[in-house]
Design goal:
Length: 391
């Protein structure tokens, strides 16, 4: 398709305040402390340019101010399997000192809409540029000079501003949906704990095996997609759900999961990775698929497994030191309340609509993400002229 927007070819360094990229501080991370700066590492940055805020660490260095991020900074991972991964800092995620395996460029808002560069660095055009440094199975390193010389097709400022406005509005809605879902999940757990949390004081006590079992069903890998496959790699810590898988297993079959099942990563259970199955899907052998004994236990089972006390129990019985795994037999002895039909019905009358709303919000976010991902390359390449849109 012919471009409808005139472009200038510029280099990244020419859009910065100082014409160069700078390396972060080389220091070990320490446990998070409120009186110390938060440490931004490669592992804190996700592929979509957002942050995993659940495992943040701190850093203790005498000249931390020198490495603090400022609004309109963008950092790039320069080495390893994450080379090219990037994060644009606008100040809303907190204050960060960036680590030594990251390179920072301070964008000049007089030369470019900084968020245009944010979106350019999430585009397929940028990802292809990063992949050009790969050699065979080895992912190449990219230094500050090379990043600085990266060429960018830059449209006029009006086009930049309109592009950013469109994509930001989509991003804000996705972010809002996540916040709503986090609040709904916390609300559901509060209701569950209030009604069923005092297991030792209940007369009708049982164990987890009374309300669920492990899935033994199998599904052909050919029937799965990156959207319907879960492994410990694409499940997020601290009960944050999951992202789209990056690959499917090479085996012919894997564990089949069905709507209403709950998935728990069995590796390093202290990461608290949990996903509620909203549709039929599949999971790896490193993920446990819990099937409720009856559909009416669906929300109750998810809420039981979502509780911190369950993960504490799972961690206590895990085997191994470097990469502990949950003990499947021990897990099924987790004590639970066996609710009466009346109590379960009352709980479901609230819990089921909450889970339905969480699913609806997540589906909307996935749809918006697909729209954004479809629009992004066309906007970046100037195939759609949005400069006439009234802001």
């Amino acid at each position: 398709m012919d471009r409808t927007v005139d472009m200038d070819i510029v280099k990244l360094k020419d859009l910065t305040v100082d014409g160069k990229g700078t390396y972060g501080v080389a220091a070990p991370a320490v446990e998070y402390q409120e009186n110390l700066p938060t440490y931004l590492r490669i592992t804190d940055i996700l592929d979509d340019g957002t942050l995993n805020l659940s495992e943040l660490k701190s850093v203790k260095v005498p000249d931390s101010e020198r490495y603090m991020l400022r609004p309109n900074d963008i950092v790039f991972a320069r080495t390893g399997g994450s080379t090219g991964r990037n994060y644009f800092y606008d100040g809303t995620d907190g204050a960060f000192v960036y680590a030594g395996f990251l390179i920072k460029f301070s964008l000049d808002p007089k030369k470019v809409n900084p968020k245009f560069i944010k979106y350019f660095c999430q585009s397929e055009q940028y990802k292809q540029w990063v992949r050009s440094f790969n050699t065979g199975s080895t992912r190449g390193n990219i230094n500050a000079q090379t990043f600085g010389n990266m060429e960018i097709a830059l449209p006029g400022r009006k086009q930049q501003d309109h592009l950013v406005s469109i994509l930001e509005s989509i991003g804000k809605k996705i972010k809002l949906n996540k916040k709503i879902n986090d609040n709904l999940s916390d609300l559901l757990q509060t209701i569950y704990q209030g009604q069923f949390g005092k297991v030792g004081l209940a007369n009708n006590c049982g164990i987890l095996a009374d309300i669920c079992s492990y899935s033994k069903d199998k599904i052909e890998i050919s029937k799965l997609s990156l959207d319907t496959y879960y492994s410990t790699e694409n499940m997020l810590p601290e009960k944050s759900g999951a992202v789209k898988a990056t690959s499917l297993p090479t085996t012919s079959q894997t564990t089949a999961c069905h709507k209403g099942d709950t998935l728990i990563s069995n590796i390093r259970p202290y990461f608290k990775k949990i996903v509620y199955c909203e549709d039929d899907c599949g999971c790896s052998t490193d993920v446990l698929c819990f099937k409720p004994v009856h559909p009416r236990y669906t929300a109750y089972l998810f809420s039981t497994l979502y509780a911190d006390s369950f993960f504490d129990f799972m961690v206590a019985g895990a085997k191994g030191t470097k990469m502990p795994r949950g003990d499947k037999q021990q897990i099924m002895t987790y004590p639970v309340v066996l609710p009466s039909e009346k109590d379960l019905s009352e709980f479901n009358s609230v819990a089921t609509p909450i889970l339905t709303q969480i699913y609806s919000n997540r589906t909307e976010s996935e749809r918006l993400s697909a729209i954004r991902d479809t629009l992004l390359p066309k906007l970046i390449l100037g195939e759609i002229d949005v400069s006439s849109i009234q802001l």
